[in-house]
């Protein structure tokens, strides 16, 4: 065969399969951003081309065009070009082909899929995501975005999504654009396509769990503009949670694997992503009221909570633009608190406090309930489960129980706060937590672990016991299991052996201090528990509750250290250990108050302790902080002395400079006004009532005058002679009172004064008896000081006794015994002057205030209390019988806004039975109309009216509804129609407690008086509202009896000079005047609440004439004979 000619070879060059290399010249028809001037030009640019390079170039040009729209502030022209292009993309509908929008772009994407061109596979979904974002920013373009989404989600195009999501995990540039596209589509038009995307999860969720694991692996921090595959996948899931409807969201939450992976690496995620996760979790899961609780618990598992806990140690730095008010650890802590303590939104379930799950506590068997039969009654032992639950407790909050076991409260402040918040919200978990712990505090060593754990125990014991021990409707018939209550008071790991070892520490006194603080709280909590047992015994089964209280005290005394151990620890302290000394004495006081039997059995050395303390009383400087702490220590010592048997108040020991009683008087006189030592005054009153030193009624006023006289003469000079004289007088008055009674009777018979009219104590006669010896024993300056005290003390008697002859006689007797023409003699004869000064002196006045400020304060007080007595008796909301028919012709809104429903409520307290019945019927009719109306706040007002009606049904056929309850409803309606009112939360909380009201308790009184306000700075506003409805509700003897039972008047009188109530004195006086207008109320105020004494003190402190008018009105309206007999004619001279 001959060879082929050369020209044939040249002509067949095309058959050579070797790849030729050539340069890539720029495409002649390439278009830049500036070249696109119309929609047709953009359509031509994006026309499908089989040339991969040309197609990629066109897509990139389109991307630049879209970037220009997002970056430009004025992009109307470019947006118009884009709209023309989107309008020109008609839907293609073939015989077998699906509905397609943007056919050229999707055909380019399909071509890249077939040719496996990864550059185009990345560029097309990226530009589509950018296009959807541009469309989202324009309301006019939203329709086109939905068309893009519907086209993408069609089954013939879902392979494109699957290919991008399932690409090799190393090809992030292919996976991320598809995730961004799905995220943008789920956000479009408020989530219009989110449900469609979720329904197509067979494709849209392809390899989602794997993609959630593809976290950023770079060296530096992940940037928000260059997110990783995990970041894009997390954002996609978070957007679905935000926009999915409830039904689809519930299905999504069933995908537990997705959420496990989503939070698996949360501690390593960038700050912006962590914040997105926490915010979505809080807003769209926990706080979503439409999402049922069972759906929330599918995701709010122990594992998820542990991942959030790991954020407490999150330490990645945030950019300044990302930093918010709360750091990430604080934000995570806030979310966890919401999840763990929110009853309606989080994991918290209703529980019954100290009563375990499923326990029958209102069923009493025959051995307990039937006490009239001949059988043997076992009492507390008849309750089968009372001694059970020593190892395991059935709780309702199982998830929270498992979660708190994983916390380390001793090593993290936030974890400590979290677990204490859980304990406060679910008290059933406290005993379960400690019983499940096999180990507790190790040997006492001052390590970070020991200090942290002891602080955690301190916070746990500090939590108050739940009301009624956790039972919802008052106290149960049976008490809670003993072991559960004891774990709340003092966990079993804190046994006597460990506590004794801690108190015996000499090297580290801080350990003993921590334990003493814990024991003080435990004793106070025990005291509260015993008080609750006493209250429960009044309700049902008194014998059971009394035995239970004795058993609780017995078990507690077995766990706590003996009192001698505490005393020994106190005696080892140095004088400079002020905080420790005060804490130890406080604990000793609690031993005497709460566990007196254990103190008696131990034979404590308290008297020795008291004597040692008295030796250092002269070295105290109360002007310094150290002096205040020392004063608190001494106050505790005197309280111990008052509770100790056989203490000699009026005798001095070998090394004691003064007696105990005089030491208390001296301490009360020199104590700082910032620490008035009110408990010490209670001890003084107790001793005075026992010994009858001050026989003048009222005792506390005479005691105050004595202390004020003592304060006025106390200086830095030596006063040993003065103290010795007063001690001698006190001792002789107590030891030999008969001697001074004879002297008093002798004087009274000489002056024809009846003995029962004298109304003076024996102490001035004892002072007179010892005066002549004191005059001879001291010098002139010391004598003058003692004379000043006696003169002021005698002057104070002119206010408290009726006949002034006795005071004049005593004054002359003292003066005659003084040296002639001496200063002491002149002072004695000027007792009236000093008496006036004492009556005008404020005992609790702060010395640092000058006279100008005091005058200004008095003037302000007088303006604030400018009350006219005659107007105070008017009822604020008087009864209007026309309200029965007036509301029927008005709309629901007008009935509420114009106050017609309030007037209707007041009629439930009418004296006429027919009016009360008709008012109840009309209230029920209006409540039904309100429920069917469109009034915004109808639910709260309807609930108020329903509970009021249910409570009134039981009583109105027999007697009127107490006006205090109709007044509460009257004033609450105005608040419930305004959700922004600061009292709105408290009233709603009250209404949610029970369907009926207890008609012997004043609504919201204790909540406003004892709890902090709902909003900062609203203390005065809340109390003002309370006083207004109390004033309006005091209208009859029934209301007065409720006021008496609930100690309303005592609290009002204590409020009169309170810092938060300076503007409320007006209303307090109105309430007192209103009470005087009720039958027999004035007598009750005088005999039970000492209003006469209170008015005398207030009248002495102020020149306001209202107090004087109220004082006269009170004495006129009371039962004169009964008051004279009750006061032993002490108030006779004050009758008008």
TrEMBL record:
GO process annotations (BP): maturation of 5.8S rRNA from tricistronic rRNA transcript (SSU-rRNA, 5.8S rRNA, LSU-rRNA); maturation of LSU-rRNA from tricistronic rRNA transcript (SSU-rRNA, 5.8S rRNA, LSU-rRNA)
Q: Which residues form the URB1 central HEAT repeat domain?
A: 644-842
Residue intervals of the URB1 N-terminal domain: 102-453
InterPro entries, per database record: HEAT_URB1 (IPR059018), URB1 (IPR039844), URB1_C (IPR032436), URB1_N (IPR021714)
- Record-linked Pfam families: HEAT_URB1, NopRA1, Npa1
The segments labelled Disordered in the record are 1-21
Q: Which residues form a coiled coil?
A: none
Q: Which residues form the URB1 C-terminal domain?
A: 903-1094
**GO terms for CC?**
nucleolus
Query: What is this protein's record name?
Result: Nucleolar pre-ribosomal-associated protein 1
The organism encoding this protein is: Golovinomyces cichoracearum
């Amino acid at each position: 065969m001959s060879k082929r000619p050369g020209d044939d070879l040249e002509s067949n060059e095309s058959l050579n399969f070797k790849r030729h290399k050539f340069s890539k010249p720029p495409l002649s028809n390439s278009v830049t951003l500036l070249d696109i001037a119309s929609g047709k030009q953009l359509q031509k640019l994006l026309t499908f081309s089989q040339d991969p390079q040309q197609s990629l170039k066109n897509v990139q040009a389109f991307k630049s065009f879209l970037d220009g729209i997002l970056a430009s502030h004025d992009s109307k022209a470019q947006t118009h070009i884009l709209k023309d292009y989107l309008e020109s993309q008609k839907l293609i509908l073939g015989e077998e082909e699906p509905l397609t929008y943007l056919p050229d772009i999707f055909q380019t994407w399909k071509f890249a899929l077939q040719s496996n061109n990864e550059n185009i596979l990345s560029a097309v979904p990226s530009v589509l995501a950018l296009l959807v974002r541009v469309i989202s920013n324009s309301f006019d373009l939203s329709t086109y975005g939905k068309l893009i989404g519907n086209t993408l989600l069609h089954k013939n195009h879902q392979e494109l999504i699957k290919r991008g999501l399932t690409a090799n995990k190393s090809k992030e540039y292919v996976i991320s654009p598809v995730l961004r596209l799905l995220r943008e589509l789920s956000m479009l038009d408020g989530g219009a396509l989110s449900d469609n995307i979720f329904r197509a999860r067979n494709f849209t969720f392809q390899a989602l769990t794997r993609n959630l694991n593809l976290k950023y692996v770079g060296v530096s921090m992940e940037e928000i503009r260059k997110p990783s595959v995990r970041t894009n996948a997390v954002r996609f899931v978070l957007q679905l949670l935000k926009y999915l409807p409830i039904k689809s969201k519930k299905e999504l939450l069933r995908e537990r694997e997705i959420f496990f992976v989503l939070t698996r690496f949360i501690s390593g995620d960038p700050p912006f992503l962590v914040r997105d996760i926490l915010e979505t979790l809080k807003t769209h899961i926990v706080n979503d009221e439409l999402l049922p609780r069972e759906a929330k618990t599918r995701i709010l598992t122990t594992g998820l909570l542990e991942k959030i806990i790991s954020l407490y140690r999150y330490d990645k730095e945030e950019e300044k633009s990302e930093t918010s008010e709360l750091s990430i650890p604080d934000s995570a802590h806030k979310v966890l608190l919401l999840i763990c303590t929110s009853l309606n939104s989080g994991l918290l379930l209703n529980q019954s406090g100290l009563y375990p799950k499923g326990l029958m506590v209102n069923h009493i068997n025959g051995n307990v309930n039937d006490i009239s039969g001949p059988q043997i009654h076992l009492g507390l032992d008849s309750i089968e489960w009372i001694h059970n639950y020593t190892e395991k407790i059935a709780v309702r909050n199982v998830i929270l129980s498992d979660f708190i076991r994983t916390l380390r409260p001793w090593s993290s402040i936030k974890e400590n706060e979290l677990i204490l918040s859980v304990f406060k919200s679910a008290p059933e978990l406290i005993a379960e937590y400690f019983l499940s712990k096999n180990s507790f505090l190790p040997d006492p060593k001052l390590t970070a672990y020991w200090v942290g754990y002891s602080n955690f125990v301190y916070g746990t014991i500090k939590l108050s016991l739940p009301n009624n021990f956790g039972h919802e409707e008052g106290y149960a018939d049976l008490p809670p299991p003993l072991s559960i209550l004891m774990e709340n008071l003092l966990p079993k790991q804190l046994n006597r052996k460990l506590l004794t070892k801690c108190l015996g520490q000499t090297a580290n006194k801080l350990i003993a201090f921590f334990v003493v603080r814990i024991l003080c709280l435990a004793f106070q909590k025990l005291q509260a528990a015993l008080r609750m047992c006493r209250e429960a015994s009044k309700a049902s089964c008194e014998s059971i509750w009394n035995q239970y209280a004795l058993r609780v005290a017995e078990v507690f005394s077995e766990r706590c250290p003996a009192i001698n151990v505490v005393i020994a620890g106190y005696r080892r302290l140095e004088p400079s250990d002020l905080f420790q000394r005060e804490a130890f004495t406080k604990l000793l006081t609690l031993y005497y108050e709460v566990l007196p039997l254990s103190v008696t059995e131990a034979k404590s050395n308290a008297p020795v302790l008291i004597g040692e303390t008295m030796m250092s009383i002269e070295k105290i400087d109360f002007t310094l902080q150290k002096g205040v702490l020392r004063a608190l220590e001494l106050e505790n010592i005197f309280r111990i002395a008052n509770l100790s048997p056989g203490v000699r108040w009026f005798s001095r020991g070998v090394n004691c400079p003064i007696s105990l009683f005089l030491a208390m008087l001296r301490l009360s006189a020199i104590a700082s006004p910032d620490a008035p030592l009110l408990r010490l005054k209670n001890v003084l009153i107790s001793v005075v009532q026992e010994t009858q030193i001050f026989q003048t009624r009222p005792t506390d006023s005479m005691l105050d005058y004595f202390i004020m006289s003592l304060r006025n003469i106390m200086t830095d000079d030596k006063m040993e002679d003065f103290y010795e004289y007063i001690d001698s007088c006190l001792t002789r008055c107590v030891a030999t009172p008969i001697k001074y009674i004879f002297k008093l009777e002798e004087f009274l018979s000489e002056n024809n004064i009846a003995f029962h009219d004298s109304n003076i104590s024996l102490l001035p006669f004892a002072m007179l008896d010892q005066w002549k010896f004191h005059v001879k024993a001291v010098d002139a300056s010391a004598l003058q000081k003692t004379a000043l005290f006696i003169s002021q003390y005698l002057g104070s008697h002119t206010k408290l006794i009726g006949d002034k002859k006795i005071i004049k006689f005593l004054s002359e007797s003292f003066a005659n015994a003084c040296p002639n023409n001496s200063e002491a003699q002149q002072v004695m004869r000027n007792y009236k002057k000093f008496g006036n000064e004492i009556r005008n002196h404020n005992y609790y006045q702060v010395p640092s205030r000058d006279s100008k400020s005091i005058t200004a304060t008095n003037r302000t007080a007088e303006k604030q209390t400018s009350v006219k007595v005659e107007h105070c008796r008017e009822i604020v909301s008087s009864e209007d019988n026309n309200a029965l028919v007036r509301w029927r012709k008005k709309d629901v809104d007008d009935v509420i806004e114009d106050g017609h429903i309030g007037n209707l409520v007041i009629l439930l307290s009418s004296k006429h039975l027919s009016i009360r019945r008709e008012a109840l019927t009309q209230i029920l009719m209006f409540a039904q109309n309100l429920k069917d109306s469109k009034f915004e706040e109808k639910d709260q007002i309807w609930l108020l009216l329903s509970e009021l009606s249910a409570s009134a049904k039981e009583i109105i056929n027999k007697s009127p509804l107490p006006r205090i309850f109709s007044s509460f409803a009257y004033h609450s309606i105005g608040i419930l129609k305004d959700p922004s009112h600061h009292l709105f939360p408290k009233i709603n909380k009250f209404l949610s407690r029970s369907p009926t009201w207890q008609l012997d308790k004043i609504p919201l009184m204790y909540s406003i008086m004892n709890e902090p306000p709902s909003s900062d700075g609203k203390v005065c506003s809340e109390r003002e509202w309370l006083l207004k409805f109390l004033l309006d509700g005091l209208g009859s003897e029934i209301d007065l009896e409720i006021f008496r039972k609930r100690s309303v008047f005592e609290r009002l009188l204590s409020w009169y000079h309170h810092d938060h109530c300076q503007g409320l004195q007006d209303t307090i006086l109105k309430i007192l005047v209103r009470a005087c207008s009720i039958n027999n109320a004035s007598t009750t105020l005088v005999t039970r609440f000492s209003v006469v004494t209170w008015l005398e003190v207030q009248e002495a402190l102020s020149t306001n004439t209202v107090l004087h008018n109220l004082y006269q009105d009170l004495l006129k309206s009371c039962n004169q004979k009964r008051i004279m007999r009750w006061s032993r004619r002490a108030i006779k001279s004050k009758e008008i």
